[in-house]
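User: I'm curious whether this sequence folds into something compact or stays loose and floppy. Could you predict its structure so I can see for myself?
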Amino acid sequence: MTTRYQIRPFQEGEEKQILDLFSLSFGGRQMSLPYWRWRFQDNPAGHGVIELCWDCDALVAHYAVTNLTMSIHGQSLNVGLSGTTMTHPAYRGMSLFQMLARSTYNRMLKINMPLVWGFPNLMSHRSFVRELNWVDIYEVSMFRLHLEPRLKDIHTSNEYIFEFSAADERFDTLWERVRNDYDIITQRDRTYINWRYFLNPIEKYKLIGHVENNEIQGYAVFKHYGDELQIVDVMMGKEAFDVGENLITYLIVHALKVNASSISLWLNVTHPLHHALEKIGFRPEGPVTYLGGVVLNPTTDKSFYDFRRWYFTMSDSDVF
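Assistant: Here's the prediction. I'll summarize afterward.
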């Protein structure tokens, strides 16, 4: 790389150049400033780690990770969710992405963020694996149910289902009760839930909870995408899959009422709820998304690469 290029961390006041580069990189698509601030600056886990490449005064490449808190074998760690990778069309093929990523990872290690993970797309997947040493953890299918007239006979315990306009302290209690059921999981306390769903400036989600004796036994978050209902998050104790089943059958009934054609979610095939939903008729379908990552600190447990340890939903991706 010649000396005219400069790689350095983001500085306040450079937001406009980032948004302009996003539009150039993605065929005119726009990213709003409120969304950028929500993901990278107003995140309760902390500011994102953002590296920029400049050619004199022109921003030509960008790599960023969202700061997230994960519970890994019961230990809370700040980690990086990779995303918003972009390079100016005139500067592609110059390995700027790889150099930015390595610079980002070095800075992450300095601030005690021991691993990075994410969902690379078809364009970037090979580069992550071949050049940044990412490990492929899983190929995530859409787990989808096509809605049919026969499903109108499905029953759910509506008496336990309530809609929430925000998560309250009972969601903290649920998180503390179930977090150790899962070896690798993004922290899902009320602060995260409210930030991820209710403070998101561009998406509209709805949150329902299964409540018994004034305790949250589980919850689901959903949105409508075209004529499909997407369950972007569902959470309950690993063995309380009957709670998850009740939440999802409730949403099937709702989807039928609004004439949705299908209902979908992401769910690890090893989870007991996955097995229960198979009985209803859910099946894996495309599109398929890569889940991968790399452990940056060699002392971090390598079981991170074992997909059986993971709990993930659509909400873990920045796409949904």
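Summary: The first strand starts at residue 5 and ends at 9. The helical segments are 15-25, 33-40, 96-110, 125-132, 169-178, 190-198, 241-257, 272-280.
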